[in-house]
Design a protein that fits this description.
The protein is mainly α. The chain has four helices and four strands.
Length: about 180
C-alpha cells in the first residue's frame, strides 16, 4: 500500500518524555507518523497498525463500528440508486410525453389538406430576378404524369416517352445496336 498523503492533516509528532505507547499513540509502518490510537487501521493509508489490543471490549467496539459503517454505506448506496432510478423514470416519462406531443402535432399537420394556390399571371418585367422567381414557381407547381410504358411519374412526359427503355420500338433498336457493339 502507498500513503495517500492524508497524514498532513494529522500533525501528530513523536511524544516527548513518556514512551509513545504510554501516550496512547502508535506509529504507522508506511506513513511513519504517530497517530492517536483510536482504531486498528491508519486513517491515512489504511494499513493495519502494529498493535495488539487484547481488550475484548475494545475489539467488540471496533467490530460494531466497522459493521455500522458498512451498513451506513449500503444504505447510502441504495438510497442513491433509488434516487437515480426515480430521476431516470421522470426523464423517460418526459420523453414519452414529448414524443406523444410531437406525434399529435405531426398528425395535425398531415391531416390538413393542401390547398393549391391559384396561378396569378404576373406582368413580364425586364428584371432577371423576377423572371427566375416566376420560372421556379411554375416548375414547382407542374404536375407529374405517369409514363404509359414504365408507369413512372415524370414532369416532361413527352421527352421521357421518346427515350423510355420499356417502349417496344426502343427495345428492338437497343438489341440491334448491342450486336454491333460486341464486334469490337
Amino acid at each position: 500500500m502507498t500513503c495517500k498523503g492524508i497524514c498532513v492533516r494529522y500533525k501528530a509528532q513523536k511524544p516527548v518524555g513518556t514512551g509513545r505507547y504510554a501516550s496512547g499513540q502508535r506509529r504507522c509502518q508506511i506513513c511513519e507518523i504517530f497517530i492517536k490510537w483510536e482504531g486498528l487501521w491508519c486513517p491515512c493509508c489504511g494499513y493495519r497498525l502494529r498493535t495488539k489490543p487484547r481488550n475484548l471490549k475494545y475489539k467488540a467496539k471496533l467490530r460494531a463500528r466497522v459493521e455500522a459503517d458498512s451498513i451506513e454505506a449500503e444504505a447510502k448506496s441504495i438510497s442513491d440508486m433509488e434516487a437515480e432510478l426515480a430521476a431516470e423514470a421522470k426523464a423517460a416519462k418526459a420523453k414519452e410525453t414529448r414524443a406523444a406531443k410531437a406525434k399529435l402535432t405531426k398528425a395535425a399537420k398531415v391531416a390538413k389538406p393542401k390547398v393549391a394556390k391559384p396561378k396569378v399571371a404576373k406582368p413580364k418585367v425586364a428584371k432577371a430576378k423576377v423572371a427566375k422567381v416566376a420560372k421556379s414557381e411554375t416548375t414547382k407547381t407542374k404536375e407529374k404524369t405517369a409514363c404509359q410504358y414504365c408507369e413512372k411519374p415524370y414532369v416532361f412526359i413527352a421527352k421521357h416517352e421518346t427515350k423510355c427503355s420499356k417502349k417496344p420500338q426502343n427495345e428492338q433498336d437497343s438489341s440491334e445496336n448491342g450486336s454491333i457493339a460486341i464486334k469490337a
